[in-house]
# Entry
Amino acid sequence: MKRAAILLGALAAASCGGAGGPAPRPLATNVSAERPLAELPQQELQQGQCGMALWQRTEPARRIAFILDEPPSVRIIDGGEVIALARTAAEGDAIARHAPVQRFAGAGHSLTIDVRIEQREGLLAGAIIPEGTLTWQSARGSIVLPVFGLIGCR
# Structure
């Protein structure tokens, strides 16, 4: 457990910088008057799972989504409640058991991620997500957010 937390922390720190500086930040489009997708608390991986954590590109960054490979699902917080959605589709070559494009849906909500996943030398059981977008749709509206993140496996 502690090893996974240390790996995820190290990967998060590594994904924040780089020789080329931060990736360009696309503008968010929000049709909801309230701030969507609250910060998600630290999540735990079970033995054999790979999790993808995504942070919104804000100052400071906020962890807004956690995607599991098994069971294939996503967790977010919207309107003060934790929402778990099942994956309905995945596209692209999986890296660390996660595809770069994943779609989730259920109970009137849908979420799509479209990210770039990079394996970097020296990283064990994980990968970096230097850039991507998260699209959230609910009865309150829809939003497209710029994200970055990491994948860690236990």
Q: What stands out?
A: The two ends are 8 Å apart (CA to CA). The beta strands are 29-30, 50-56, 62-69, 72-78, 81-91, 101-106, 109-118, 126-138, 141-153.
